[in-house]
TrEMBL record:
Catalyzes the epimerization of the S- and R-forms of NAD(P)HX, a damaged form of NAD(P)H that is a result of enzymatic or heat-dependent hydration. This is a prerequisite for the S-specific NAD(P)H-hydrate dehydratase to allow the repair of both epimers of NAD(P)HX. Catalyzes the dehydration of the S-form of NAD(P)HX at the expense of ADP, which is converted to AMP. Together with NAD(P)HX epimerase, which catalyzes the epimerization of the S- and R-forms, the enzyme allows the repair of both epimers of NAD(P)HX, a damaged form of NAD(P)H that is a result of enzymatic or heat-dependent hydration. Binds 1 potassium ion per subunit. Its cofactor is Mg(2+); K(+). This is Bifunctional NAD(P)H-hydrate repair enzyme. Its EC number is 4.2.1.136, 5.1.99.6. It holds the Pfam family YjeF_N. The lineage of its organism: Bacteria, Bacillati, Bacillota, Bacilli, Bacillales. It comes from Priestia koreensis.
Length: 510
């Protein structure tokens, strides 16, 4: 699992490495420059012209090391110092000394301002080492003007650690470099997973500069990127002696006359992800329609009024290990009664869609629950649960998810690009699979079904959630490989292609 850090955590990691491990800041800068220069060497043709734009902080110091090494490799490189060279301090000042001692000459933005603006469009590649993780608020003159010009170039732009102008922890973006690619140093920063800042990173590649694991473990706050190897490591295997009871009894509660498809999608995804036995609870008037699409489930048609749930549910006739409630159920008063009934069961409960609106009226029940409770809101639903705007949620996805999870002892799956899974103890995991083809009605219904299926088969709820989210996005990515576009993907495509994605995973796991 790849660690994800805030600006403060990255500072702590650096300081621990310097003070406790004994690796100097100068050595870390040299290592960062070396690794990135080698990556650039593999990507930039030797005959292309390169500009390195250097700020006065450590980010600029990284740029000076990169510029020195690229010239040593034989590249045509101009290193532009934007501030006065006298403003460089600490490790950056040392990097400038090494650069000059190697026989190379920098160019001064202050002395050649007009020439700089004339030459910049003529470079084939531009390396952005202007502003690092210490920036707060938007960039000032002359950085703002330079960034504006950079964003209108035809040149390939690489940013070092993060695009200049972005705050490491995300938030509002005033002016920032729109990088084609960002080499983030040692660990990605939280802003790379929140919007709008994530839009500026381009392709992100994390470069390991040799900071030991102990530094990261001492300083990071339990945020990780869930990777394919984590899925392979934690995905359960089936034994030859197993039977349908080995893989859990699940329930799907949802649907209404206006949203018949939602429980069909959730149930289909649950069955395709391996649930042993599935019981589907829908209003009586739509039971036959749902049953005509899902023949492998058992059914309970419930009391209704005008096609919506009327009241409580009795589960006396069956013991369910996990229940998914919410898809397509509507927002009538009867729905609230249904959600309250579900929350009073000694089962793992997954709440999604309209169920989340009802959940907000049932916070009091959560303190009595002993079995896990999982919610799967998108940003709009999270804003409703937290009484804040969608923008406030999007700018603070990690903090908002963590606060809600800890407060109500929940597993929170905050959906969207870079879905975040948060445990009741505040551990957080980020998913990187998926594409905008998932931005369509019904895909969330398939996800809750996959979560239900995986929760019933994994021993760890956290691993089940991360694996379900990962595979949900993986299927969407597989669809693009198979000829679909981001425009035409629909939820039923996900269910249809789940077998292929699961087969690939299980083959790699062997």
């Amino acid at each position: 699992m790849k660690p994800i850090v805030t600006a403060e955590e990255m500072y702590e990691i650096d300081q621990y490495t310097i003070r406790n491990v004994g690796i100097s800041g100068e050595s870390l800068m040299e290592s960062a420059g070396l690794v990135i220069a080698q990556r650039l060497k593999a990507e930039i043709p030797i005959n292309e012209k390169v500009a390195v734009l250097v700020g006065k902080g450590n980010n600029g110091g990284d740029g000076l090391v990169i510029g020195r090494l690229l010239q040593g490799y034989g590249y045509q490189v101009d290193v532009w110092i934007i501030s006065s060279s006298q403003d460089l301090k600490g490790e950056a000042k040392g990097a400038l000394l090494h650069y000059e001692n190697a026989g190379y000459v920098t160019r001064s933005y202050q002395d050649e301002k007009d020439l700089f603006h004339a030459l910049l469009p003529r470079y084939d590649y531009v390396i952005d080492a202007l502003l690092g993780i210490g920036i707060k608020g938007g960039p000032r003159t002359p950085y703002k003007e330079i960034i504006d010009q950079l964003n209108h170039l035809q040149s390939m732009v690489y940013s070092i650690d993060l695009p200049s102008g972005i705050e490491a922890d995300g938030g509002v973006v005033e002016t920032a470099v729109k990088a084609d690619k960002t080499f983030t140093i040692q660990a990605p920063k939280t802003g790379a997973y929140t919007f709008p800042s994530a839009n500026y990173y381009g392709q992100v590649e994390t470069v390991d500069i040799g900071i030991p694991n102990i530094s990261i473990e001492k300083s990071s706050r339990h945020k990780r990127e869930w990777e394919e190897r984590d899925v392979e490591r934690t995905f359960p295997s089936r034994t030859r002696s197993s039977h349908k009871g080995s893989y859990g009894r699940g329930g799907v509660v949802g649907g209404s006359t206006t949203m018949i498809g939602a429980p069909i999608l959730s149930s289909g995804a649950a069955l395709r992800t391996g649930v042993g036995l599935l019981t589907i609870y829908v209003p009586e008037s739509i039971r036959s329609v749902v049953a005509s699409h899902i023949t492998e489930g058992m059914y309970r048609g419930l009391q209704e009024e005008n096609g919506y749930f009327l009241g409580d549910i009795s589960f006396d006739d069956v013991k369910l290990d996990a229940i998914a409630v919410g898809p397509g159920m509507g927002r009538t008063e009867g729905g609230t009664k249904v959600v309250r009934s579900v929350l009073q069961q000694d089962s793992t409960v997954i709440v999604d869609a309209d169920g989340l609106t009802h959940l907000k009226k049932c916070w009091d029940l959560l303190q009595y629950r002993k079995a896990p409770t999982i919610i799967t809101p998108h940003p709009g639903e999270m804003s409703m649960l937290m009484d804040m705007t969608v923008d406030e949620v999007e700018h603070n996805r990690f903090e908002v998810s963590r606060d809600l999870a800890i407060k109500h002892n929940l597993y929170v799956v905050l959906k969207g690009p870079f879905t975040i899974v948060t445990t009741p103890t505040g551990e957080q995991f980020v998913n990187t699979t998926g594409n905008p083809g998932l931005a369509k009605g019904g895909t969330g219904d398939t996800l809750i079904g996959m979560i239900l299926g995986f929760v019933l088969q994994h021993k760890s709820v956290q691993e089940a959630l991360n694996n379900a989210v990962y595979m949900h996005g993986k299927v969407a990515d597989l669809l693009l490989e198979k000829g679909h576009s981001m425009v035409d993907i629909v939820a039923t495509d996900l269910i249809k292609h789940l077998p292929k994605a699961l087969n690939q995973l299980l083959q790699h796991k062997k």
